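Hi, here's the filled form for the chain we discussed.

Project: internal
Contact: R.S.
Residues: 128
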Amino acid sequence: MPPLEAAAIYVGINILLLIYLSSRVVFMRRSAQVSVGHGGNIELELRTRTHGNASEYIPAMMVGLVTAAYMGIPALWIHILGSAFTAGRILHAIGLSRTILPLRATGMVVTWIAMILIAVMLIYHGLA
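And the returned structure, exactly as it came back:
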């Protein structure tokens, strides 16, 4: 599988993750009748932050994966980093939304490791 097609898999999965997390916010807003903010609803606040956190990390990593693919970084690395990042985001989302600290922390560490590795690869290949 070429690197760009490998990256496309993780871009697609992470887009679906964002849509899922966003829909959880929308449905909670409707049931709580809160249009803006969280209205003191702790569950809505958690869902909003879970979606917000994913929205903050996912775009940068997806740009990194696609850029790496265009630069010719092997598809194996795209799969390793894309799957690690995606797993980290899922673990973090579960941990944050259910306040399970070990899952949340593990998800962040896995997310950061994947992002650091892709950043180093991009810098190295950009300078080479």
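Let me know if anything looks off before we file it.
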